[in-house]
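Appendix B. Raw example, untouched.
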Amino acid sequence: MINMTDSAISAVRRFMQSTETPMAGLRIRVEGGGCSGFKYGMKLEEAVSDGDSVLDMSGLKVLVDENSMPLLDGVTVDFVDGFEGSGFKFENPNASASCGCGKSFSC
């Protein structure tokens, strides 16, 4: 199960409201790359793809493909707005290592 903080959900809703095209939800995925082996990806999607798991996060639809789902189990997504900038932060209990930027990990 993926968890999203209220701050992350609010940030995604703001981004969705600013688009002209209606969005089906937020896609969260894991792909190869980054300094540690895997990296997180997020983007707004217009449609659900075959094989997607659709998770409801307080009314926000989160779309996850079947390959990413095991790597995201237990992950918490937060949105941090601070002095040095703002952005999404991933806390992954499955990660055995992560890089300094917080955008990639290994299992």
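End of appendix B.
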